[in-house]
Amino acid sequence: MPGSRLLVALTIFFLSACGGAENRPDANVITLNSTFDADFDLISHHNEPVTDEDFAGKPMLIYFGFTTCPEVCPMALGKMQATLDHLGRDADKIQTLFITVDPERDDPERLRNHLAYDPRLLGLTGSLEKISEAQDALNVWSQKVMLEDSAMGYT
Fold first, then answer.
1. Cα-flanking dihedrals φ and ψ of residue 125, to 5°?
2. Would the pTM count as exceeding 0.85?
3. Is a pLDDT exceeding 60 seen at residue 88?
């Protein structure tokens, strides 16, 4: 459902983009608009269909990345895990999602192995089209970059 009940509980990644005080939101107030439309229809790392509606009423912390990411993605996942640890018993009130931007490599099994260290993290994949739709819905951009002298081929 477009405009699903997505609550952005943790805005750590967005706060650094805020300008001066005139651009900062009021404390303890979350305002959503169509910019944050978590409309997606993907496959979990348990090989089950997952849509945004599966988490209706539950805040989602979403990270887009890929399993062969050498530095940024592991650090971001570590921060997500540390945030959940800090929340303690309240961590189960938030759904953390790792959505791949590389579905050509990141099938459910690869995501399951990559995220096995923390069952609170749910990996999502799908077709290139479905990943692109999820990115568009959440205003996320990524680009495949070819690596000529690498066994990986691209990043």
1. -140, -175
2. no
3. yes
